[in-house]
Write a structure and sequence with these properties.
Elements (H helix, E strand, L loop, with lengths): L2 H9 L3 H23 L2 H17 L10 H18 L25 H19 L3 H13 L3 H8 L3 H26 L1
C-alpha cells in the first residue's frame, strides 16, 4: 500500500494506517535523528516525537504521496529543537572515575555481556564523532539497510559519493578503534 493511501486512511479515522506508515519510515527517521544528535538513546526518543508531531499535523500535509520526506523534515526539526534546548545535560561514563568501574569477576558470563555492551558503546561513540556527512551515510546505511543507489537518491548525491563516504568512514573508525584497543593493552 502506498504512503498516500495510508495518509488518507489515517485522516479517515483508521489509526492503524499511521502505525504502518510509522513502521515503514521508522528506521530512516531514527537514523536521521541519530546522525543529527549523535546519541542513540536520544535518537529513539526523537523518532517517537517525530511520529507524534506527524500524526498531530497530518491534516496539514499538502501532498500525501510525500509523507516520507515530510516526516524526515519533521525529524530534522525535532533534532534541531533538541540540540537547541538549554536544559539537557550529559554525563559521560568516563568522567565517573575509576572507583565506579565494572567488576570483571562477575558470575555466569555477565562480564562478557558488560564487555560487549561497552564495546558497542565505544563503537557508537566513535560513529557519533564522525563528520556530519560521513555519520549520516553510516547511520542511514546500517540502520535502514539500503543500497547505495537508494541512499544517493535520498541524500541527493551520486552513488560514488555514497561509496566514498562509507569507505572513508570505515577507515576513520578502524583507525580510531584500533587506537582504543592498543591503549587498553
Amino acid at each position: 500500500m502506498e504512503d498516500a493511501e495510508l495518509v488518507r486512511q489515517t485522516l479517515a479515522g483508521r489509526k492503524e494506517a499511521f502505525a504502518e506508515l510509522a513502521r515503514r519510515w521508522s528506521p530512516r527517521i531514527t537514523a536521521i535523528c541519530h546522525s543529527r544528535v549523535q546519541r542513540a538513546d536520544v535518537a529513539d526518543d526523537l523518532a517517537q516525537e517525530t511520529f507524534l508531531r506527524g500524526f498531530r499535523a497530518l491534516a496539514t500535509l499538502s501532498d500525501p504521496a510525500k509523507a516520507g520526506s515530510w516526516l524526515m523534515g519533521i525529524a530534522v526539526r525535532a533534532s534541531l529543537d533538541w540540540l537547541k534546548a538549554k536544559d539537557r545535560s550529559t554525563v559521560i561514563f568516563s568522567t565517573l572515575g575509576k572507583d565506579q568501574s565494572v567488576d570483571h569477576e562477575m558470575p555466569g558470563g555477565q562480564a562478557e555481556t558488560v564487555y560487549l555492551a561497552d564495546e558497542r558503546r565505544r563503537i557508537l561513540t566513535e560513529i557519533e564523532a564522525l563528520p556530519e556527512t560521513h555519520r549520516q551515510v553510516v547511520m542511514l546505511y546500517y540502520y535502514d539497510d539500503h543500497s547505495y543507489r537508494d541512499l544517493a537518491a535520498l541524500l541527493g548525491v551520486s552513488t560514488a559519493t555514497i561509496n566514498a563516504r562509507l569507505t572513508q568512514a570505515r577507515e576513520i573508525l578502524r583507525g580510531r578503534l584500533s587506537d582504543c584497543r592498543s591503549e587498553l593493552t
